[in-house]
């Protein structure tokens, strides 16, 4: 048997072995290769990212309304308990010159944006919704985020759920800290009192039940990104 | 007497593609199972009768949503690079001449169908491939390119918004991506069936490159499961 034939025959054999491996997770040894591809993809995705690339759903698409799923990590809908925890505040800290502790009143006095955008879920569904809130970039300016802040961690009171973002995506004009949905105040099912929402990241990156926004020099993983989902998860 | 039929570059890219395509489809179906329908939340979708029904586990790859996504977004590079290498090679090396349909190939396809349906007795005359094969092998790289383009639209609906909008938005981009996959599955299934049922001797040619022209389907008047072991006509004629 010639070397070339041997190589080809083994290629064919591995193909049939892969066919037989269907329904499986694939070979264990491939983990490193998959991680490598994920890093390379992130570089490409960050290269493709533009602050001028806007999400604009067609006016023919209806808002999801009650059809928007309610996802959280806790066993029951997380609700901020004022009697136990006191008044809800949003802390903006880390690499900032003016750390902020915002009450809902203070948050609502900041420049208000209402936008109708797509929600891209990692599962493959989308939902159009109209969100109201404050631009993350305005918040960063108010807190005086420093140039060495390359990442932002968004933390919640939903069982310590958090996800960290690259600063570019956080500063996208469609990245909002939302307190309103479809013209009403946010409900507990969708992340009340306030949540992060942007169409530039998959749903799981958009932390609900927000309590802390921390500007950081390094990334800090996240609830789903630590379990194997992409950390970048840009759309 | 065996002749060289497929260049080693074509054989390697064929098998690399086979592996990449199987993983792409398996992981894609696993991803699809996280939301096995197309409708935007709060809306309905016109054109998918199996909404809500999961793809059977045996047809999936990657184990879970994140695993499948990681495989899909890694293997796509092998699929793309291998596909581009194949197309460049057959263009520069001349194999494209055996694959690009020409005038008369529509008629010849009809004659092939008539032959397979026992309406026509003799196998139509052919070159390296019959007319149906030419259309199939010509369609595969085009479908693969469409799979990649629709896939990009699903992957980056904001960064590549003009592309996604061109396809009618995310929901339809995902639908076209699914339909292109289905077309690739159907053509591949027919391809594999015909290899085994009509010309099993061609398996050797896609592994070692060697092919015995005396076993060509045209000489055997081979239909699916007919004349698989019949010797070439001219051998029989020579004995008579």
Give a description of the structure:
The complex is a heterodimer of chains A (235) and B (240). Chain A is an alpha+beta fold and 235 residues long. Helix content of chain A is 25%, strand content 23%. Chain A has helices at residues 3-20, 31-48, 82-85, 104-109, 136-143, 167-170; strands at residues 90-94, 100-102, 113-120, 126-135, 151-156, 162-166, 176-181, 184-185, 195-197, 210-216. In chain A, the strands form two sheets. In chain A, strands 2-1-10-5-6 form a five-stranded mixed β-sheet. In chain A, β1 and β2 (100-102) form a beta hairpin. The relative contact order of chain A is 0.17. With 240 residues, chain B is mainly α. Chain B has one domain: Fumarate Reductase Cytochrome B subunit. Helix content of chain B is 60%, strand content 2%. Chain B has nine helices and two strands. Chain B has helices at 8-32, 65-93, 105-116, 131-155, 161-166, 170-197, 201-207, 217-220, 233-239; strands at 3-4, 210-211. Chain B has a two-stranded antiparallel sheet with strand order 1-2. In chain B, α3 (105-116) crosses α4 and α4 (131-155) runs antiparallel to α6 (170-197). Chain B is elongated and about 60 Å long. The mean pLDDT of chain B is 94.
What fraction of residues of chain A sit in β-strands?
15-25%
Biggest sheet statistics of chain B: 2 strands, antiparallel
Instruction: Please state the oligomeric state of the protein chains shown.
Output: heterodimer
Shape of chain A: globular
- The radius of gyration computed from the alpha-carbon positions of chain A, rounded to a whole number of angstroms, is 21 Å
Pick out the low-confidence regions of chain B: none
Mean pLDDT of chain B: 94
For the record, the CATH class of the largest domain in chain A is Alpha Beta
Q: Helix/strand/pairing class of chain B, anyone?
A: mainly alpha
Number of helix segments of chain B?
9
CATH architecture classification of the largest domain in chain A = Alpha-Beta Complex
- CATH top level of chain B? Mainly Alpha
């Amino acid at each position: 048997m010639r070397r070339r034939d041997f190589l080809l025959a083994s290629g064919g054999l591995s193909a049939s072995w892969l066919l037989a491996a269907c329904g499986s997770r694939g070979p264990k040894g491939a983990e490193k290769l998959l991680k490598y591809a994920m890093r390379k993809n992130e570089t490409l995705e960050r290269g493709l990212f533009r602050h001028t690339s806007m999400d604009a759903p067609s006016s023919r698409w209806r808002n999801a309304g009650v059809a928007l799923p309610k996802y959280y990590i806790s066993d029951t809908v997380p609700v901020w308990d004022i009697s136990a925890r006191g008044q809800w505040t949003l802390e903006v800290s880390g690499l900032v010159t003016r750390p902020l502790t915002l009450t809902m009143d203070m948050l609502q006095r900041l420049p208000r944006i209402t936008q109708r955008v797509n929600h891209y879920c990692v599962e493959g569904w989308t939902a159009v919704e109209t969100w109201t809130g404050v631009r993350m970039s305005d918040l960063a300016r108010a807190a005086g985020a420093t140039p060495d802040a390359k990442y932002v961690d968004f933390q919640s009171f939903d069982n310590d759920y958090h996800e960290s973002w690259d600063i570019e995506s956080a500063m996208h004009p469609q990245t909002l800290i939302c307190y309103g949905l479809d013209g009403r105040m946010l409900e507990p099912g969708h992340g009340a009192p306030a949540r992060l929402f942007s169409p530039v990241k998959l749903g799981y990156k958009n932390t609900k039940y927000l309590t802390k926004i921390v500007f950081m020099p390094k990334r800090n993983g996240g609830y789903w990104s630590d379990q194997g989902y992409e950390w970048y998860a840009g759309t | 007497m065996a002749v060289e039929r497929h260049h080693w570059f074509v054989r390697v890219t064929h098998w690399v593609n086979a592996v990449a395509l199987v993983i792409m489809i398996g992981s894609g179906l696993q991803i699809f199972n996280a939301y096995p329908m197309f409708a935007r939340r709060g809306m309905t979708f016109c054109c998918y009768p199996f909404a809500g029904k999961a793809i059977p586990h045996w047809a999936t790859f990657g184990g879970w949503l994140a695993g499948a996504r990681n495989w899909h977004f890694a293997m796509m590079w092998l699929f793309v690079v291998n596909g581009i290498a194949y197309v460049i090679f057959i263009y520069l090396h001349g194999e494209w001449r055996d694959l690009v349909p020409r005038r008369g190939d529509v008629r010849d396809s009809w004659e092939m169908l008539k032959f397979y349906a026992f309406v026509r007795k003799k196998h139509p005359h052919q070159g390296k491939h019959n007319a149906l094969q030419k259309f199939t092998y010509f369609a595969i790289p085009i479908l693969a390119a469409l799979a990649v383009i629709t896939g990009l639209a699903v992957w980056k609906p904001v960064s590549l918004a003009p592309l996604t909008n061109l396809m009618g938005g995310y929901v339809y981009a995902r639908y076209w991506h699914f339909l292109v996959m289905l077309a690739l599955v159907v053509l591949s299934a027919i391809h594999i069936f015909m290899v085994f049922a009509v010309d099993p001797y061609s398996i050797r040619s896609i592994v070692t490159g060697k092919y015995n022209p005396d076993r060509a389907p045209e000489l055997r008047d081979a239909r699916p499961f007919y004349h698989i072991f019949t010797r070439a006509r001219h051998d029989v004629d020579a004995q008579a």
